Amino acid sequence: MTKLYLYARFERFWHWTQAGLIIWLMITGFEIHGEYELLGFGRAVQIHTLLAWALMVLWVFAIFWHLTTGAFRHYLPSNPLPQCAKSLAEVARYYALGTFLGEKHPFRKSVEAKHNPLQRMAYLLFFATLVAPVIWVSGLAYLFYPQWQGQGPGWLSLGTVAIVHTAAAFGMLIFFIAHVYMATMGKTVFSLIRGMITGYEEVEH
Amino acid sequence: MSCSRIIPGGLLLAGLLLWLPLAAATDAGSGIPASTADHGKFEVLQGPFESGPEVTRACLTCHTEAARQLHRTKHWTWEYQHPETGQVLGKKHEPNVFCGSILSNYPRCTSCHIGYGWEDASFDFSSEENVDCLACHDTTGTYSKFPTDAGHPLYADRMVKGKLVQAPDLAQVAQHVGMTSRETCGACHFSGGGHDGVKHGDLDSSLIEPDQALDVHMAADGLDFTCATCHTSDRHQVDGSRYRMTAKDGHGVDIPGRDDGRASCESCHGDRPHAADHDKLNDHTDRVACQTCHIPEFARGGIATKTFWDWSTATRLDENGKPITRLDEHGHAVYLSTKGDFRFGENVQPEYHWFNGTVKYTRFGDAIDPDQVVSVNDIEGSADDPDSRIWPFKVMRGRQPYDKVTNTLLVTHVFGKDDTALWTNFDWSRALGAGMAEAVAVGEVTQPFSGEYGFVDNRMFWPITHMVAPAGEALGCAECHSQDGRLANLEGVYIPGRDAFGILDTIGWIVVVLTLLGALAHGIARFLVKRKPREA
């Protein structure tokens, strides 16, 4: 067992701030969508907008950090494609079966490779294709609707923007549930979460 | 107490009372009237005057162009050619859902005309002396046009229903003319439809001395606007039209030289009037009229407005053949043999529709579908029209007579001492025959009454724009952004909080629940399995 420093201070700050922002974006967003009444429509809109701007600022920093530190590599496929599919299948098998049989996780974390192939793929597909551009573009279009209405193509109405944004929000909620659950799948229920707080994680070698 | 002591006191009191209207127009402290002319000093106004036209002749000796200016206004012509629809409108032509039409009912209806003696279709619209200056410029509050005298005031005291009604002192009124006031405008505009508050719903005598809650602009203890503060005028042409409204004022704040009239909210407030921390509200002004949020209810001043008028039940008489009057607990007539059934409303929530300012009428000759609700006036606009905004309306509903053969609305001869007037004879056929005969005579329609009549459901749109509440009482977001909110039935636009996407939402929530269940099942399975001893 080795203790590895996997998550830098900014990375943890970014992760947890983003988590908080997204949780409240979902709470206020689904209220705006009319699912329930909690804060009141007006306040929900105000807070949702503020949180969105905060998250955008955070993303600017996060992108800058990932590019300058090279950390973005953790989100790219680790191997050439054929091997990639194989290692993906291994990880998937582990979650579906191996974990119940007491098997060891097929992936070994290291400072150079923090994410297993499934994580890489999930983050890449999810954040690179769902969050950006779908949530951001539809969200910004929603926010600035009064400025562009009547100027876009005929099919692009507030309704279209809203349906895309809502679909993306459901995607976010589903990802969120799966993500939180997967976070309990370390050695103990809280071992991975602890690592995301302290930065250190115990890794078997 | 002897008479000698009462009389000087009485004179003093009378003198003070007479002084009151003048004092109102006097610059405090200086003792000089705000106007540059003290009309009391003009010889030509000393009187006595026998009639209204005589007063006008005196006015015209100085205001030589006034009558010719008036002749060009809707206040005089009661006629308006709509530049977009091409329809010739105005009170003189258009039908309404109240008393129907002025045709054949002139002396009663034209008591609100700014002229004297419009008794029938032969009225001389070029007459200068028949312009009524006092109707708008009286400051004494004593001048009024008698309701049935075709625009004339009383010239001698008259007994009306057992009460003595005094004729105004025309010389006294003439010497105290001044700017228009809420009282002078209100004399007609508050009492449209025959009584206080009946027609508009957002205009009634509660606006003569409103508090801030009723009208934040006109509040006597606040800004104290008169009608003319917003309804500015040039050459007696008053800004603001209900045939062609400025439903969306693209000019913003009016600047001299670019002024297109001040009778819109934007003329003073611009089109982004809310503070920066409410910037989202500013985003609404392109699609939502200010009135929609800022006039949450109309008829708020304690005076009920008529909301429904069913003519079909009129003419029922009691067992003695006498007309029936039924009042509700507030003293409003809910049934009259002369007029039928009524409903009233106070603090009424408006209905909301897209509106681009253009109002189109179903005129007397126009074909109607008696199986449908007839929009006696229809408002134009839609979500796709960038000049349209969501506007609040009083929608006046009821039933009115139509011709079963020609399928057109009918003119009812309601008023008069002759044996064809509905209010005298309670005979629909003769009243409609007489009304339509007049409509044919003046060229309003070509086909006379066929003799077969029925009643058709109708509605009429009255844009709500007065009785602006203080900002704190404006509508909250959820009033519209909710599923059963005020805009529940508004079409053509996606409203967050109101609209959802049935299938997407259903699928979305199903997948969310499945994900949760999957995680739960996976977790429970893990927990159960882990308690078993591991195989090495």
From TrEMBL, chain A:
<keyword id="KW-1133">Transmembrane helix</keyword>
<keyword id="KW-0812">Transmembrane</keyword>
<dbReference type="InterPro" id="IPR016174">
    <property type="entry name" value="Di-haem_cyt_TM"/>
</dbReference>
<feature type="domain" description="Cytochrome b561 bacterial/Ni-hydrogenase">
    <location>
        <begin position="7"/>
        <end position="199"/>
    </location>
</feature>
<dbReference type="InterPro" id="IPR011577">
    <property type="entry name" value="Cyt_b561_bac/Ni-Hgenase"/>
</dbReference>
<keyword id="KW-0813">Transport</keyword>
<keyword id="KW-0472">Membrane</keyword>
<keyword id="KW-0408">Iron</keyword>
<dbReference type="GO" id="GO:0020037">
    <property type="term" value="F:heme binding"/>
</dbReference>
<dbReference type="GO" id="GO:0005506">
    <property type="term" value="F:iron ion binding"/>
</dbReference>
<keyword id="KW-0249">Electron transport</keyword>
<feature type="transmembrane region" description="Helical">
    <location>
        <begin position="157"/>
        <end position="181"/>
    </location>
</feature>
<feature type="transmembrane region" description="Helical">
    <location>
        <begin position="12"/>
        <end position="30"/>
    </location>
</feature>
<dbReference type="Pfam" id="PF01292">
    <property type="entry name" value="Ni_hydr_CYTB"/>
</dbReference>
<feature type="transmembrane region" description="Helical">
    <location>
        <begin position="50"/>
        <end position="68"/>
    </location>
</feature>
<dbReference type="GO" id="GO:0022904">
    <property type="term" value="P:respiratory electron transport chain"/>
</dbReference>
<protein>
    <submittedName>
        <fullName>Thiosulfate reductase cytochrome b subunit</fullName>
    </submittedName>
</protein>
<keyword id="KW-1003">Cell membrane</keyword>
<feature type="transmembrane region" description="Helical">
    <location>
        <begin position="123"/>
        <end position="145"/>
    </location>
</feature>
<dbReference type="InterPro" id="IPR051542">
    <property type="entry name" value="Hydrogenase_cytochrome"/>
</dbReference>
<keyword id="KW-0349">Heme</keyword>
<keyword id="KW-0479">Metal-binding</keyword>
Automatic annotation (TrEMBL), chain B:
<feature type="transmembrane region" description="Helical">
    <location>
        <begin position="507"/>
        <end position="529"/>
    </location>
</feature>
<dbReference type="GO" id="GO:0016491">
    <property type="term" value="F:oxidoreductase activity"/>
</dbReference>
<dbReference type="InterPro" id="IPR051829">
    <property type="entry name" value="Multiheme_Cytochr_ET"/>
</dbReference>
<feature type="signal peptide">
    <location>
        <begin position="1"/>
        <end position="24"/>
    </location>
</feature>
<dbReference type="InterPro" id="IPR024673">
    <property type="entry name" value="Octahem_Cyt_c"/>
</dbReference>
<keyword id="KW-1133">Transmembrane helix</keyword>
<dbReference type="InterPro" id="IPR036280">
    <property type="entry name" value="Multihaem_cyt_sf"/>
</dbReference>
<keyword id="KW-0472">Membrane</keyword>
<keyword id="KW-0812">Transmembrane</keyword>
<protein>
    <submittedName>
        <fullName>Octaheme c-type cytochrome (Tetrathionate reductase family)</fullName>
    </submittedName>
</protein>
<keyword id="KW-0732">Signal</keyword>
<dbReference type="Pfam" id="PF11783">
    <property type="entry name" value="Cytochrome_cB"/>
</dbReference>
